[in-house]
Amino acid sequence: MKVIHLKYPYQLDKVDPSTSYSLAVGFFDGVHRGHQAVIRAAMEKAREINVKSAVMTFDPHPSIVLGKSNEKIFYITPLHQKLEILEELGVDTTFVVQFTSDFAKLSPEEFIQHFIRDLNVKHVTAGFDFSFGAFGKGNMELMKELSRGDFGVTVVEKQVEGGEKISSTRIRESLREGDMETVHHLLGRPYQLQGIVVQGDKRGRTIGFPTANIQPKEGGFIPKNGVYAVKILVQNQLFDGVCNVGYKPTFKNPDEKQLTIEVHILDFHKNIYGEEVKVYWYKRLRDEQKFDGIESLKAQINRDKEQAIEYFSNKSFA
């Protein structure tokens, strides 16, 4: 997949004028099942009219630049991960438009001129609620009107699950609650967090449960504290595991708040410090808790392992 970074008013000359596109446009945080419906519709249209398939996304999140949200925005899929997923979907080209104050001031007409017509886009696909141009004044009805027949427009209607719209907001709420099975269902894949294995306090090894201490990549969201059934990709191999997210209250002073992500990898005995890993989150097993001693902690970890083993053995995963 070709990735082209664009910034207004500069860097708009990176595009080969001989290449035409069927473009899916949106922020697409999470690349969830609703987003996938938009992207697949654009890819289908690309095959139909014999042009390249493309996705246009934006970075950073508009609310960060516009200061609209009092709440700190976190990404379900940071940009590097979003690009990986788009490539896996089979998209030919992704345009990453830098969302700046100047970009935010573009009128709907200017947006269409610079980011549709000038990119030689022959067809635009977006969700029913996509807006563009200053103050979000442009909607998909206006997109059709302003196209003047120069490019086709497809509007993908609301994608619903359980009577509610599949949305990034809904997925974020489920992540905050640790409801990884709902997240998995809405994304169409398990939630993923990438990170590096770093040195920890090595206490797990001393009690017979060595763990990989994960330092997440910047921008990744850490689900609610607790114990989870996970899978972890290490050196291109996938292993089952049990992950603890929290502050290790059995050993730590509760006033010393240092969040850790530790994965006990089942049937694994290698040293992997410095390795980049991906953790796939499947089910929250329980809250993090404080134990009155090492033996009760070890007994609970054994129960967590058995629960994770049972969970994965009774599930079939795509």
TrEMBL record:
The chain positions of domain Riboflavin kinase read: 186-313
Which EC number applies? 2.7.1.26, 2.7.7.2
Per UniProt, the keywords (alphabetical) are: ATP-binding, FAD, Flavoprotein, FMN, Kinase, Multifunctional enzyme, Nucleotide-binding, Nucleotidyltransferase, Transferase
Tell whether Flavoprotein is among the UniProt keywords.
Answer: yes
Query: If you read the UniProt record, what top EC class would you report for this enzyme, in one word?
Result: transferase
Pathway the protein contributes to: Cofactor biosynthesis; FAD biosynthesis; FAD from FMN: step 1/1; Cofactor biosynthesis; FMN biosynthesis; FMN from riboflavin (ATP route): step 1/1
Q: Which reaction does it catalyse?
A: FMN + ATP + H(+) = FAD + diphosphate; riboflavin + ATP = FMN + ADP + H(+)
In the record, what terms sit under GO molecular function? FMN adenylyltransferase activity; riboflavin kinase activity
The answer to keyword Nucleotidyltransferase applying to this record is yes
Signal peptide region: none
Protein family (similarity comment): Belongs to the ribF family.
What is the name of the protein in this document?
Riboflavin biosynthesis protein
Q: Which organism is it from?
A: Ureibacillus suwonensis
Lineage at the top is: Bacteria, Bacillati, Bacillota, Bacilli, Bacillales
